[in-house]
């Protein structure tokens, strides 16, 4: 959309009240550099998003009069100069951010919690908040409005009564009720994608792991599952889901356990039983993909799709974030090729951040990676971590080519690669216009 003027800077007072600045314009940040958002990357703040402050950290804005970026410590309010702090958006899922909030991160005093931080401003022409982002998935199933807890509680109680000895069910009830995990809620609503947590352990030590924080980073949000469910416990909950739910997917490793690859034997057995009981629905495996031989076993067991997580396809950047224990990034690539060769739908869970993911070296390597692996879909997931901490740990200085340009480049070079944010049912693996791609061993 062509706009006459830039959106205005948003700032917050010390109480967290949010205002738009009468004169200064919104800026964003790519890597460590302040930039002006391009018209093409500004969209109205998606509904179900949230705004919050970056405590005690002054925003950076564009001063059109001075023609430079300025740090805004105070704003005049009547006769007083009030101290201000930066504002960030936490977007509804399905959107990839293209810019980080612009602020003076050197002044930040706290380690920011594990959310994703997006540049946001106020559009005077449209009278709405705008964010630097792009929609990458049209699936609206995951919007908060679909998860009404008043309807959930009786369903949880009823299901726990049906399977009083199933430890996995007790865990999922906790995930749904205490952690407000939408995937876990889906199991009780008996619809869409339901999770199968199985693993108390992991062989990565991600800086931003949401289920365990061995690092110096930040407290994790959820407590990991503390046991490995039996194939029987898995099947008795997931088979009815596959048989009865609309758009049914059951997914191992859905988010905040350890990594399910550590429990591959149990998962292979459960999957074999599910697949021999029904051909309905989709069984998916989300993982770090660190053991190709176990992926082979899971392909043979009947897994439909695989999604492997990575923050980068460059080994040094991958290692700095995942801190793998006894495996290397080449094993992840091998797993992806293996799953693709076995005829499964393959995805990467690309944990993106402006400045790291659109770094020219990353773009070059990503294109080669797509060519080598034949990956079907890239889920563009906003990495939830303090952006300043992340940039520093990844050694980022300066800016990348722009997230929007990254998306365009991939599309231009590999039109068959799909972007997305969520897992898909088998019926939707290859929508019209997208082919299956090639087997790697062509
Ligand atoms: S994603 Fe996390 S909260 Fe949700 S079911 Fe899995 S382990 Fe539980
Ligand atoms: S791979 Fe997943 S479970 Fe393992 S450390 Fe990373 S985020 Fe945590």
What does it look like?
- The protein is globular and about 70 Å long.
- 28% of the residues lie in helices and 24% in strands.
- Strands 1, 2, 5, 6, 7, 8, 11, 12, 14 and 15 form a ten-stranded antiparallel beta sheet that branches. The protein has a seven-stranded parallel beta sheet with strand order 16-17-18-19-20-21-22. It has a three-stranded antiparallel beta sheet with strand order 4-3-13, with no helix packed on it.
- It has eleven helices and 22 strands.
- It is of the alpha/beta class.
- One iron/sulfur cluster binds next to helix 2 and helix 3.
- Residues 202, 204-206, 209, 211, 258-259, 288 line the site of one iron/sulfur cluster (SF4).
Provide keyphrases for this structure.
442 residues, alpha/beta, TIM Barrel, 2 domains, ten-stranded antiparallel beta sheet, globular, disordered C terminus, binds iron/sulfur cluster
């Amino acid at each position: 959309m062509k706009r006459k003027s830039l959106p205005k800077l948003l700032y917050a007072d010390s109480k967290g009240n949010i205002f738009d600045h009468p004169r200064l314009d919104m800026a964003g940040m790519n890597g460590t550099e302040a930039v002006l958002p391009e018209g093409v990357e500004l969209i109205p703040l998606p509904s179900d998003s949230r705004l919050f402050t970056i405590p005690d950290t002054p925003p950076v804005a564009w001063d059109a009069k001075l023609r430079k970026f300025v740090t805004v410590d105070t704003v005049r309010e009547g006769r007083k100069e009030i101290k201000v702090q930066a504002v960030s958006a936490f977007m509804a899922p399905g959107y990839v951010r293209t810019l980080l909030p612009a602020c003076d991160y050197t002044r930040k005093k706290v380690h920011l919690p594990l959310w994703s931080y997006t540049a946001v401003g106020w559009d005077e022409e449209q009278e709405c908040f705008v964010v630097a982002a792009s929609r990458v998935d049209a699936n609206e199933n995951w919007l908060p409005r679909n998860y009404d807890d008043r309807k959930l509680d009786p369903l949880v109680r009823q299901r726990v009564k049906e399977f009083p000895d199933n430890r996995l069910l007790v865990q999922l009830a906790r995930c749904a009720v205490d952690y407000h995990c939408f995937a876990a809620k889906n199991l009780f609503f008996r619809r869409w994608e339901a999770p199968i947590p199985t693993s108390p352990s992991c062989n990565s030590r991600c800086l931003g792991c949401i289920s365990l924080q061995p690092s110096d980073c930040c407290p994790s949000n959820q407590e990991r599952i503390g046991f490995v469910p039996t194939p029987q416990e898995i099947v008795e909950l997931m088979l009815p889901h596959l048989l009865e739910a609309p758009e049914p997917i059951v997914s191992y490793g859905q988010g905040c356990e350890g990594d399910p690859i550590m429990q591959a034997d149990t998962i292979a057995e459960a999957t074999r039983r599910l697949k021999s009981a029904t051909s309905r629905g989709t069984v998916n495996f989300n993982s770090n993909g660190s053991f190709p031989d176990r992926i082979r076993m899971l392909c043979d067991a009947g897994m439909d799709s695989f999604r492997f997580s990575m923050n980068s396809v460059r080994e040094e950047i991958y290692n700095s974030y995942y801190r793998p224990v006894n495996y290397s990034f080449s094993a992840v690539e091998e797993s992806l090729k293996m799953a693709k060769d076995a005829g499964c739908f393959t995805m990467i869970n690309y944990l993106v951040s402006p400045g790291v993911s659109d770094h020219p070296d990353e773009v070059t390597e990503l294109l080669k990676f797509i060519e080598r692996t034949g990956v079907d879909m890239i889920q563009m997931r906003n990495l939830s971590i303090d952006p300043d901490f992340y940039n520093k740990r990844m050694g980022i200085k300066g800016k990348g080519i722009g997230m929007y340009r990254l998306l365009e480049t991939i599309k231009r070079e590999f039109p068959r690669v799909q972007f997305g944010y969520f897992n898909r049912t088998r019926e939707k693996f290859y929508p019209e216009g997208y082919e299956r791609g090639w087997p790697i061993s062509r």
